[in-house]
């Protein structure tokens, strides 16, 4: 597995980790979209209070073993990403994901056409669904989405 830091230039600079198998057997990239709930880094860890789950990192590592390329990023104002976490709205988060998609499609190092979105919580039910409705992607994976009891 290969991992490298990748900086995306959209409305703000987002920093993330691209993980790749030695051979990309699937030709597909999966973008991790973090959920709401504080300052969550690219690995799925909460910065305040300090809680290390590594849920995004561990899931990414597993998907790379299956032949996928993954990209997970620090939300605005978190980790190495620029911006103000508290001033970031839903529209901003949607634009961030669209900028990531464009980068992965247009960067000669990747040039990926088949991109899946993997959204956790708000990242799936709100951000991921909004992006998938307005941008061509290969699919949407929803983790821990909201529900209602009837």
Q: Count of helical segments?
A: 3
Widest sheet, order of strands: 1-2-4-3-5-6
pLDDT averaged residue by residue? 92
- SS strand fraction: 25-35%
- Unreliable runs: none
State the share of residues found in helices, binned by percent: 25-40%
Q: For the CA atoms, what is the radius of gyration? A: 14 Å
Give the H and E element order: EEEHEHEHE
> Which class of secondary structure composition applies to the elements?
alpha/beta
Biggest sheet overview: 6 strands, mixed
Report how far the terminal alpha carbons are from each other: 45 Å
Q: Number of DSSP strands? A: 6
Coarse morphology: globular
Topology summary:
Elements: E1 2-9, E2 13-20, E3 28-33, H1 55-65, E4 69-73, H2 90-106, E5 114-120, H3 122-134, E6 139-143
Parallel strand pairs: 3-4, 3-5, 5-6
Antiparallel strand pairs: 1-2, 2-4
Helix pairs in contact: 2-3
Please give a structural write-up.
It is a single chain. Helices cover 27% and strands 26% of the residues. The protein has three helices and six strands. Strands 1-2-4-3-5-6 form a six-stranded mixed β-sheet, with helices on both faces.
Structure at a glance:
This protein is of the alpha/beta class.
Essential attributes:
six-stranded mixed sheet; alpha/beta; 3 helices; 150 residues; single chain; globular
């Amino acid at each position: 597995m290969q991992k490298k830091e990748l900086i995306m230039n959209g409305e703000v600079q987002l920093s993330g980790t691209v993980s790749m198998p030695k051979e990309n057997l699937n030709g597909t990239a999966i973008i991790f979209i973090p959920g709401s709930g504080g300052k969550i880094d690219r690995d799925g860890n909460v910065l305040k209070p300090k809680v290390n789950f590594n849920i995004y990192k561990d899931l990414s590592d597993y998907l790379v073993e299956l032949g996928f390329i993954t990209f997970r990023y620090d939300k605005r104002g978190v980790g190495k990403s620029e911006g103000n976490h508290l001033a970031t709205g839903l529209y901003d988060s949607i634009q961030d994901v669209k900028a990531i998609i464009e980068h992965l499609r247009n960067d000669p190092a990747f040039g990926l056409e088949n991109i899946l979105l993997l959204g956790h919580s708000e990242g799936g039910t709100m951000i991921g669904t909004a992006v998938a409705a307005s941008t061509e992607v290969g699919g949407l994976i929803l983790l821990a989405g909201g529900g209602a009891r009837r």
